[in-house]
Every structure is written in C-alpha cells, then in structure tokens.
Amino acid sequence: MSNRCSQGHQNPPDSRFCRLCGEKLTVAGVGIYPGMLLGDRYRLVRELGHGGFGRTYLAEDINRFNEPCVLKEFAPQVRGTYALQKSEELFEREAGVLYKLQHPQIPRFREMFRANYEEQGHLFLVQDFVEGSNYNQLLMARKQQGQVFSEAEVAQLLRQLLPVLQYIHSIGVIHRDISPDNLILRSADQLPVLIDFGGVKQVAAAIASQFVEANQVPHATRLGKIGYAPPEQMQTGQVYPQSDLYALAVTALVLLTGREPQEFISDAATPARWQAFVTLSPMLSAVLSRMLAPQPSDRFQSAAQVLQMLGAPPAFNPDLVNRAFTSHAPLPPATPPSPPLSYTPHSAPQPPTSSATVAYRPASPPAPRRSSGINAGIVVFLAILGAVIGVGWWARDEWLPLITEAPATGEATNPDTQSSDFSPEERARKAALRDRREALGIDAGFLVRLTDATFRDRHPELQGRTLTTDPSDAQWRAQWDAIASEWLDQLEQSTSAEARRQLGSYDKTDRDAWKQTVNQLYVSSRALYDLADAQFFHLYPEQREENFLEQPIGQVWHAIAFDAVQALQSNNALERIQFAPGTFSQDVSGTLNPGEGRVFIANLRAEQILRLSLQVPPRSTQLSVYVPRPTVETPFYLEDSADVVWSGTLTQSGYYEIVVVSIADQPINYNLTVAVDNVTSAPVEPTEPEAPDAKN
C-alpha cells in the first residue's frame, strides 16, 4: 500500500513525515491488503489515496461480475465508545446526503457497510469507479509538452460542470473542494466528473476537534485546498454555493495558465490579478472576474447565472479534449507580459442612461425544491424558464419595445423597425432577421421577450439600462441580434411550423386540452410531460430546477409539448402492447434520438405479475411505469428511474403506461421486454378497461 498524507501526497513506504508538506504520516493497517475480501463482497485491488477521514481503495464487486468500485474508509482519530458512536452517526448522516446525489457526472454512491478486521469494526462508503485521468494529471502532461488548456476547452469545461453544480446546490449540497485533482475526464464519454465531496472531510474535522483527548493537541484539518478555497471558507469555515463558483474559477485559471493559484492570488481578501498571465476574451474574462470576487455577495449567486452569462451549452465536442497534445495553447512565459487591458462587469462600457430607465430586481437563486404532483418534470420545467425569463433586457421603441408594453400578438410594437442611426450593415442584419422570423411564423413580440431574457442573463451588468440607437450601443445591439438569430436556429430545428405559430400564446388552457386529448389514447399527462421534458432538458439542460413555465422560455416547452401530443396521436411516440394467444411476453425495439421518448400502453388485470427488462447502454434512459388510476398511496410504480428492470404484482385493472426516454447525447438502440403472468393462466386483457378520463 502507498503511504499518503491527508492532502494526497505520495510518499515512500518507510516515511514517517510527508516529503512535501511535513505532515506526520499514519501507517496503513497490516490487516488491509490486496486480494482481501471486505463485507463478503468487495475484493481490494489497490490503494488509491489517503484523505483526512481515512483511506480510499479500488475494489472489485464480486456480486456484480467483478465490476470495479471505490471504497472510502472512515477512520476517525478518536477513542472511547461514545466518541466512536457519535462519529459514526455523523458519518452515516453525511453518507445519506451523498446517497441522494443522482447525476450522470457524479459517481453514484451505492451503499455504506461495516467490515471487521484487526478485531475492530470499520465503516466504508462504496461508490462507482470512474475510469479516466484527473485534470491535474492532464495539465501536467501538457506542461511537459509546453502546452496548457485553451480558452475554448476551459469554456466547454465550465459549460459542462456548471449544470452539475446547479444540481447539487439545488438540493442543498456544497462540494467544498473543487480543484483539478477532484475533476476526472471520464474515458467513456469525455465528460468531466465531480468527485471527492468535502462533506465527509467536514465530518472528520468536526469529530477530531470535538472528541480530542485532554492531553492531545487537535490535528489541524484544512477543509478545501489553499488557493482554491475562497476567503470565507479558509477564514471562517463557512461555505455557500458561491464558494464552489470561486473554486471552479480558480481551477479554470490554473488550467489556462499552468500556474498554481498562489502565483496569481496573492491575498485572498483582494481581487485576483490573473490577467498578467493569460489574455482571454472579454466575455470569459468578465465571468471569471466576477466568480473570483472576494465577497460571496459580489459573485454570481448561482451556477445558473454563470451558465447564462456564458451562453447555452453547445453540442459536446470531444475533439477539444482528444487533441491532447496538438493545437493547444502554448505555456505562458515565465516572466509575465505587460498586463493586457481587462474587461470586467464594473469597467464595461455602459450605454447612456435614458429617461425611460426600467427598474430591475435581480432574480434570487431558486429555493431547493423537489418535484411532486402530477409530474415531477413539469415542476422542473417551471423552475427553468423562470430563471431565464426573469432577467429580461429592455430597449427603446426604435429597436426593442419595452417588454411590459409589448402586445401578446401582432406587430403594433415591431422589433424589426429600422432607424436612420443604424449603419447599412446593421439595417441589413435586422432585415434578414425580420425576413427569417416571418418565414418561420414566429410572433415578433414573443421573439423580443425571449431574446431580452437571454440577453439580460448573459449581461447582468446592464441591468436597469435602456438600449439606445446611439452608435456607442452598436456592439450591444449586435449581440442582441446574435442571440435572436440563435433562438431562430433552435426553434427551427426543435419545433414544427404549427407549434411555432402559437409561440407567445400558449397557456393553461392548452395544457388542459392536451390532457384531454392524450387521455382518449389512454395516456396520462404524466407520460406526455415525460416526453416534453426529455426533449426540452436535452436542448436546455441549464433549465433544470428552474421555475420557467410562465416565462418566455416556457413557451418553447409548450411548443415541444404540442409536438409531443401530435406524435402520440400519430402513433409515432405511442405503441400498444398486445400478447398473441398462448404467449406471455413481447419484445419491442427501436432507436431513440437524444431527448426522444416512447410510450407503451398495455391493458392488464389486477393480480397479474408484470416484468419489465430494458436493454440499453448504461445510464442512457429514464423509465417510468404509470398505473391506470393514480391514487395518493400509489401515484405510480416507477418514475424517471435509471433502473432497467422492474417487476411487481399489479394492483389495478386497466391501461398501464411504460415510458422510456433517452437522456443520452447520441442515438441509442433499445429493446424492451414486457412479460405478464399470473402463474395459472395466460394473460387476458380486461374487457372493460378504465374510462379514458380516469387518467390524469
């Protein structure tokens, strides 16, 4: 076994003190050795590291065909029965927090178990093993070639990680220890994975300080890495969502510069001076500057705000990562060049103030909430659109009407209106936008509201300002036009012509009508919303956990839902399962594109045993099983689950719905086996299923 300190530094086996930081080392127990079987299930392969709460091991799960996994040992440095009992209670509580984390870019925490060796009981956490290299290893490899990460790569990394932070923050979890060491580039799909949450370290530190013996000096346990952890975490131990954003910004700059944080952050209480080491685009420079503000209140208040500032995540480009040693940014020189002109939100050129200034109240971060009611997904949708819309951007009648005065339909206040103050190029650009919008059948007022919301999210420094036709605002108008063009692209690709024509006018009346329509097909609104949610969140993942339904982007969700209703009615997304005489099962197979789903219905009897088996690539789908008549006690059998097998005795007679949606980033093939038996007879459909309106 390797000999590591609590910071993970590797040391020779006979070392008593860490060769890098000087920490006194503890000798690994002789009872732990490769090949040892723990919990009658986990065979140890090797030690991966040594943290402040114990050691981490690579193991094989013999109950799952020797699948690799990670064991994290909890070994608090305390004595006494009460102290050990209390420490284990705290550890179990923290394990419960980790267990509820369900995100494809977070290793899944499987279980906690106790194993006995050396005549003592030891607690272990089991989580998925992530095959790949951490970003510190990737950076070191590049530095050997005189290279570092490029701005495009780091921007992509931020766009891929911010939704992960948005997710954990929404359920009240703070990572506390983001750094290149705790980010792994997963080999399977080239996505960054967030590992080594700091909550367990917090438990270890609290236990060590609370139960230290009278004649001992408590060992200082640092939570968060020096340079990466923000001032409030290092000085007071307090952490917030903004603390993770600070650490992520430092990580980005380390990858961009190849330097340690101490080289560009001399004093945690003052703004970082990293511009001397790397020149970035004004947009990314402004984002990182605000993420690194010394005071949490001066940073972005949520990961969603940062994501909106950076823009909607583009399609994943593995080439940015696969080109490991070609076309990368050169390593900055040892002597910093003259500091370039930097752009920050506070020093950005501001449009002149107009007499028609619009009051703006920044949107507060959404409160953590769990999905419930008719559909968990619809609550998530509502949350998403609220964040995007609540940051609307305003301009004069000559270009953008005040959103509060824009009509719901019609062209009374036309965003396409030209101005003699515009250059010929700008007039041509706006005319092209108008022509394309009209060709797509999209309402002008709606496009204004949708673009305003996105523009304001990307440029919060312009809050309360009114855009003018003055040449000094030309750069802002160009960016607004670019966002409008992006929306036209997305709406053309993701919605039908009929759905686009109604954008801006969808409301609850439409949702109620769709519910009645699909109910006649023996499909519930839950299943309909599953289809709409899957497509919407595939296109706009940053909208998860946001309150968006009544916001402009909520209209996009409605358009997608409209198309889902059409797909169900045409049987493109709906299939009925019927068993041939004498058969007990049926296989259905096909291909699902990213964000696509299908609903399967089967008319079954109570007391029959239903068995489902879905063959798909790992973690590529969500499976739901809805009952004919939902009740408070049994609203569903399965909802948005990563499981691929399910069986149970049916409690009702009628049409059951099996919904499969893809959450993969590429087309996948599926094969669904539906089997029904009641042991003594072949399955027979009920002659009188529930009325269609029994669905909800």
Unreliable spans are: 211-222, 312-328, 333-415
Mean pLDDT: 77
What is the strand content? 15-25%
Q: Treating each run of at least 4 consecutive H or I residues as one helix, how many helices?
A: 17
**Using DSSP, what is the number of strands?**
22
Which value, in Å, is the CA radius of gyration?
A: 28 Å
Distance linking N and C termini: 58 Å
Largest sheet: 6 strands, antiparallel
Based on Cα principal axes, name the global outline.
flat
Strand order of the largest sheet: 3-4-5-6-8-7
Give the fraction of residues assigned to helices.
25-40%
* Main structural class: alpha+beta
Structure report:
The chain is α+β, with helices and mostly antiparallel strands. Helix content is 32%, strand content 18%. The protein contains 17 helices and 22 strands. The chain has helices at residues 81-99, 135-144, 151-170, 199-210, 231-236, 241-257, 282-291, 303-310, 319-322, 376-389, 424-440, 444-458, 474-494, 497-501, 508-519, 525-539, 552-569, and strands at residues 3-4, 10-11, 37-38, 42-51, 54-61, 67-74, 109-117, 120-128, 132-134, 147-148, 183-186, 192-194, 329-330, 574-576, 585-592, 597-604, 609-615, 621-626, 638-641, 645-649, 654-662, 668-677. Strands 3-4-5-6-8-7 form a six-stranded antiparallel beta sheet, covered by helices on one side. A hairpin with a 5-residue loop joins strand 1 and strand 2 (10-11). Helix 1 (81-99) runs antiparallel to helix 4 (199-210), helix 3 packs antiparallel against helix 8 and helix 8 (303-310) packs across helix 12. The longest helix is centred in the C-terminal third of the chain and has 21 residues, at 474-494. The protein is flat.
